[in-house]
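Archive entry: two folds, one per protein. Generate the first.
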Amino acid sequence: MSAEVTFLPAGKTIKVRPGTTLLDAARQAGIAVRTRCDGNAACFMCKMEVKPGSELMPIGDVERRKLAGMEDGIRLSCQARVKGKVQAEIPMDPLRAAVLRQLAKQAEEDDKLW
């Protein structure tokens, strides 16, 4: 039996064995996910938004404590294990997001000049 993970916004889908972490699935799919703690639930950099209806194994105590107070649907990809069909959205890298915001702002200012 295999499970299936679709990573958004890339739309890339990969089949994995049940029990595979979202982080390992992303790596197998060739999708870069930033981490600093090598998957030990310490850095929070691998957070993903798991879409409703996604089939993951129950959240563990460590992840539950780490995510206390965060929005529903946020999971640590190094801890969240795939059970069936999953859709997970990888947030944009903060540096890339800042660059894109700046470029959009500059384009808007350029439009005002012309």
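Generate the second and append.
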Amino acid sequence: MGAFLDKPKTEKHNAHGAGNGLRYGLSSMQGWRVEMEDAHTAVVGIPHGLEDWSFFAVYDGHAGSRVANYCSTHLLEHITNNEDFRAAGKSGSALEPSVENVKNGIRTGFLKIDEYMRNFSDLRNGMDRSGSTAVGVMISPKHIYFINCGDSRAVLYRSGQVCFSTQDHKPCNPREKERIQNAGGSVMIQRVNGSLAVSRALGDYDYKCVDGKGPTEQLVSPEPEVYEILRAEEDEFIILACDGIWDVMSNEELCEFVKSRLEVSDDLENVCNWVVDTCLHKGSRDNMSIVLVCFSNAPKVSDEAMRKDSELDKYLESRVEDLVARD
């Protein structure tokens, strides 16, 4: 049976919430994989003075769920509790910390949690060899901080189009490949040493033991790329998802699909469930997780869209009935 089941597990985990002018919904499904290795974080109102900030993330684990699960619970505290991030509150304005210190604090948080997990006995002695990507978004009253480490992805939909997308960290990327080769590794069949399909991740300590190289110079780096974008009234929604989603839908396809579903339902869990089900039917063989974060300018339910959707449902039902009748 290998890494796949005889039939997919289609039960879903859902959650939703609202606050700080945002609404979110999420859905995850194990699918065809033998284990569920994805995890997520959704925090509206960051504790200890950042109550008007929010944080969302998706973690795509591999070789186990240990790292993904730990990060889903503790990554945010490693970010907000480190010295660089705390310095952000001192150098910024009274209303919002400085952008550069926030970005430095996020980066430091990733390096800190990766260093911290390395001392876990099961990870240190090789009993657990798991790793995880991480894609997240930290939303302040003025800025959106996109955070990416690995090949999960985040997109921003603004003014009716994809405005921004994080870049996947793949071994064949020239900059990633150069770091891998400088650390004594190679890229074969688009994988690190012919094995790992991502060039940045948390965990994966088998790829982080090159003597004389710092943590960001190893075969696999835990360093995230952090992008800052000013918020705008035209912001509609953000999608965070693992590659089980992106493998079968492009940025534009997924955003247009989400837009069309938001026009017939204001239940964000349902919208996310539609995405996961669609990706399963489109052939995704991986775990699937999606977090949808909507701003106040997100598409609204439309009577016209609901009418067209109802007509399409009736048409499809009639076609199915015709096909069954022929048999």
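Annotation attached to the second fold: The first helix runs from residue 66 to 80. The chain has one domain: 4-302.
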